[in-house]
Description:
With 510 residues, the protein is mainly beta. It is 7% helix and 40% strand. The longest helix is centred in the first third of the chain and has 9 residues, at 10-18.
Amino acid sequence: MMMNTLMPRRSVLATLSTLPWLGSAWAQGTMAHDMSAMSHAVPGGAVAATVLAPVEAIAAGAPLAVLKKLVNTSPQPGLFRATLRAAPVSLAVLQDGTPTEFWAYNNSLPGPLIEVMEGDTVEIEFINALSQPSTIHWHGLPVPPEQDGNPQDAVPAGGRRVYRFKLPLNCAGTYWYHPHPHGFTAEQVYRGLAGLFIVRTKNDPLKSIPERHLVCSDLKLGADGRIAANDMNDEMNGREGQFALVNAQRQPVLTFDAGGRERWRIWNANSARYLRLSLPGARFTLVGTDGGLLGKPVTGLTELQMTAAERIEVIVEAPAGGGVVGLVTEPVERGKMGEVSPEHPITLLNVDFSAVKPERLAALPKLPGSLRRIQPLGAAKAKKRVVFSEEMSMAGGVHSMKFLVNGQNFDMQRVDFTSRIHEVELWEIVNQSDMDHPFHIHGTQFQVLERELDGQVTPEPLLAWRDMVNTRSGEIVRVKLVQRHKGLRMFHCHILEHENAGMMGQVQVI
Length: 510
């Protein structure tokens, strides 16, 4: 059976399952989350199987690693100067010592943490020692477009460039950096290229609380130690590896501060995996989102859900019973395609509360009732409408997918919208596809106003600064934003395989 037109994805699923080159693997769901093997098409229409390493192949239980910091080589106050080199590096992560080639910044997994203050100037020399073009995108940071690692500004293999930008006041928050060369982003990230960025403020009301950094990522390895290429399921649903890691470790142990309270900055640095975090018995208080602290703490939370690329800050207080408790991510229903295998809770790390004495918990001081002042953005002067959709094709007997913005595949030569600098805009992100898509825009933070699903409008309960928001199938999410720099900005789905497949657009700020 052949189809030569594009169609919504569910219309093609039955046809996919009948194709001889997919065989029974698709029908039985073994291409999805069966972590013992994956399948991919090879020349001639055959199906080759790559055996994946079992989850136990990476040792668990080591102490949680402290993130490596990027050293500032500048003696000048207010100037952070350093070098980031993207290059292959061989590391033995499997217990049997089999080496794996990663791509990493400065040979570090995850990439080194950059810590600066509001108002600092940042100057990073980027050396691209890869065989592909690359960039560094400063995800969420308010930097000029020409310094933001857009795909138009790719650094060629073997090349180098200097990124230089000054951070404004009131931008303290939890950010990260990663490549953004169109067509190569997904691979470069899943091979290891991602690093962390924290902007601090002198007036942080929580600075006295011990701080932890938790970088959640995943890894898909073959039994031979090689990083597995994406299979068709990865390209459709977004890549999720069999190893769920924190600070590049499998199920490390976090020894909780004896004082009974910690501040956690959590990065979801996965290509596609959503997180739904719980820590039985412990108390969560949400204090920050992508763009920094909230106006006031949100207490009494038992779960924390994070879309891909999202960051949060939480205060964690030890449970009264102490002991060792697992930080677990539960499955998130996001509309995956195909006959995927059942998903199960994953323990990301174990938290050892044994050093915390009950009398310390009783003596914990109250958290500040006010963290920062966040003003709602004013009346919108313009409106933008972004529609996410998916289409699939069997034209010529070849299976292909398109992930679209406003019915179009990304074109680097096309400007989709024009915006005016310093003008408040209302953006409607409309999800007309069958699966969730996390929306991201470059160069600014936005405020979520409301969500609409099945005609029911729900106001957003939090006034917060974000650069990531999930959109569910059939949902409309309305946000307000302002761009503070002239130039070209990207907006896209942050499931990296979908971005690579065309779910991205461009806005020219004039």
